[in-house]
């Protein structure tokens, strides 16, 4: 039953648009997080004062639960793509920044920076998709999360499991 539901979901062009919308938001949030977190890490590697400031800011960001950032993003942007992207960005920048732990650029070298940055990015990519779906469930922005929320509302276990199967296939493809 769930397999046929997943096949129906994956065979519908309308549902592919839903998958693409969710993944587009996740990738935009991921890209912004990687750029901002990586750039901040590089700058902090040059300047001890910037490192202290960044650590203080990261402590504040990490100390606030993700659901609180979601509420602020909903207030600031409404139920739009921007809300999903900003919520992902705030949740992921500390991960990308903290995972690289850069020393000064000239003493570490470019290859060593990439050796720290790429694993952080690879860990962050699946998290962005999960965050996008979670945010869509809570905010009713169209996407996979919204479809899961509808399945929950109608107590449709087959639809929920079918959408989850699609997510598993997507997750397998990107990792």
Automatic annotation (TrEMBL):
Q: Which GO terms of type biological process are on file?
A: transmembrane transport
Specify one Pfam family.
Answer: BPD_transp_1
Supply the InterPro entries for this chain: MetI-like, MetI-like_sf
Membrane spanning segments where?
Answer: 26-44, 56-77, 83-102, 114-135
The GO cellular component terms are: plasma membrane
Question: What membrane topology was assigned to this protein in its record?
Answer: Multi-pass membrane protein
Give every ABC transmembrane type-1 domain span.
96-169
Location in the cell: Cell membrane
Sorted UniProt keywords: Cell membrane, Membrane, Transmembrane, Transmembrane helix, Transport
Entry's PANTHER family? ABC TRANSPORTER PERMEASE PROTEIN MJ0413-RELATED, ALKANE SULFONATE ABC TRANSPORTER-RELATED, MEMBRANE SUBUNIT
Specify the protein name.
NitT/TauT family transport system permease protein
